[in-house]
Amino acid sequence: MDLENQKRVKEFADEYGAENLVVVLGAAEGEAAGLAAETVTAGDPTFAGPLTGVQLGLQVYHVCEPEMKEEFDEAVYDEQISMMEMVLDVDDIINEMTDIREQYCKF
């Protein structure tokens, strides 16, 4: 997660309360999604950005997870995401995201 997005997430958490935020990711690989998820839950693991040492514990999901798919209009999901879903290792992404939530999410 780039430094600007870390800054935005931190500002939103400060303004609205971490318990009121959900971060939705769309990374193409489980490892990349996991790194971004870890950043918004446990703090920036690269020690380079505004979330270094900041444990927000935010709820975080990948757009391809079943919990998120249920939230979208089916036609919109099919048009915008389903083609990419066919080439992603969705099981790997789900496993990575589940592990991060179990370890670090507070809400």
TrEMBL record:
**Highest taxon, organism lineage:** Bacteria
Q: Does the keyword Oxidoreductase feature in the UniProt annotation?
A: yes
* Catalyzed reaction equations: acetyl phosphate + [thioredoxin]-disulfide + NH4(+) + H2O = [thioredoxin]-dithiol + glycine + phosphate + H(+); acetyl phosphate + trimethylamine + [thioredoxin]-disulfide + H2O = glycine betaine + [thioredoxin]-dithiol + phosphate + H(+); acetyl phosphate + methylamine + [thioredoxin]-disulfide + H2O = sarcosine + [thioredoxin]-dithiol + phosphate + H(+)
Q: Name one GO molecular function term.
A: sarcosine reductase activity
One Pfam family of this chain: GRDA
Q: Which NCBIfam families match?
A: reduct_selen_A (NF040748)
Q: What does this protein do?
A: In the first step of glycine, betaine and sarcosine reductases, the substrate is bound to component PB via a Schiff base intermediate. Then the PB-activated substrate is nucleophilically attacked by the selenol anion of component PA to transform it to a carboxymethylated selenoether and the respective amine. By action of component PC, acetyl phosphate is formed, leaving component PA in its oxidized state. Finally component PA becomes reduced by the thioredoxin system to start a new catalytic cycle of reductive deamination.
Assembly information from the UniProt record: Monomer. Component of the glycine, sarcosine and betaine reductase complexes, together with components B and C.
Give the family, as the similarity comment puts it.
Belongs to the GrdA family.
The name on file for this protein is Glycine reductase complex selenoprotein A
Q: Which organism is it from?
A: Faecalicatena orotica
Q: What is the lineage of its organism?
A: Bacteria, Bacillati, Bacillota, Clostridia, Lachnospirales
